[in-house]
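Is this the right way to post structure tokens for a design question? Let me know if I should format differently. Anyway, here goes:
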């Protein structure tokens, strides 16, 4: 790929650190680009990609420039090149083996989710404390006892630990994973876990996300129907309270 294709093939090594906000948007851009590639699109303008990603075009251009990619006015970006470059920046050009701690309903669902493997996060190991679960097989992976976690992490060259335990066991699971040398954790429990500064933790609290959706759904339904008590109205001071 040459500069004539609308991108800089050799990003400046002095490019500043990519911001957390930009990192958070790169997967959204990648998802949109994969859709475009699947539709056979060869190029895309910043405006079109920004619309797909629901961001401002200036933000998108700034994000891409931050990882050393610039488009050409009137031409845009090469879709396949963008997919490759963003994948490299996100580290998706290699596999990151995953271990799931906690093989309940959620752990089983994650283990069976093929999208993890296709995105470069193959589930290589499962551990649990339940003797009725240890020794069983989920998605072709035998569940091992959590006491063997460190050995399993070394054996399977695990890179990412997923915590799918009950909330009460989340911190202990995190401690075990960190003790085994992992520094990238995905926490599916609603509790905040304490970790050393070098450990990256991403939280996915499904219940909280659904409650947030409920908030907006309630507002949307009330606005559409003209019914319902406005949010917060039940706590608003009554103007007659001060009349006496």
């Amino acid at each position: 790929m040459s500069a004539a294709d609308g991108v800089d093939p050799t990003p400046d090594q002095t490019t500043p650190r990519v911001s957390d906000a930009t990192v958070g948007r790169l997967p959204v851009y990648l998802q949109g680009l994969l859709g475009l590639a699947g539709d056979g699109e060869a190029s895309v303008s910043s405006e079109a990609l920004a619309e797909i990603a629901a961001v401002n075009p200036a933000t998108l251009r700034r994000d891409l420039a931050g990882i050393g990619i610039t488009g050409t006015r009137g031409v845009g970006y090469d879709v396949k090149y963008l997919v490759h470059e963003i994948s490299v920046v996100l580290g998706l050009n290699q596999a990151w083996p995953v271990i799931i701690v906690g093989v309940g309903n959620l752990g089983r669902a994650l283990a069976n989710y093929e999208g993890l493997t296709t995105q470069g996060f193959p589930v290589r190991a499962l551990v649990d404390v339940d003797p009725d679960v240890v020794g069983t097989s989920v998605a072709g992976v035998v569940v091992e006892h959590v006491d063997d976690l460190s050995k399993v992490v070394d054996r399977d060259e695990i890179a990412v630990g997923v915590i799918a335990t009950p909330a009460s066991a989340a911190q202990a699971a995190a401690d075990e994973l960190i003790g085994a040398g992992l520094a990238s954790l995905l926490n599916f429990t609603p509790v905040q876990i304490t970790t050393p500064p070098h450990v990256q933790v991403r939280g996915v609290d499904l219940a909280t996300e659904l409650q947030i959706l409920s908030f907006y759904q309630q507002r949307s339904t009330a606005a559409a129907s003209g019914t319902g008590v406005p949010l917060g109205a039940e706590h608003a001071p009554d103007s007659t309270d001060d009349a006496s």
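Format looks fine. Someone answered above. Worth noting: The CA atoms of residues 32 and 110 lie 23 Å apart. The radius of gyration is 23 Å.
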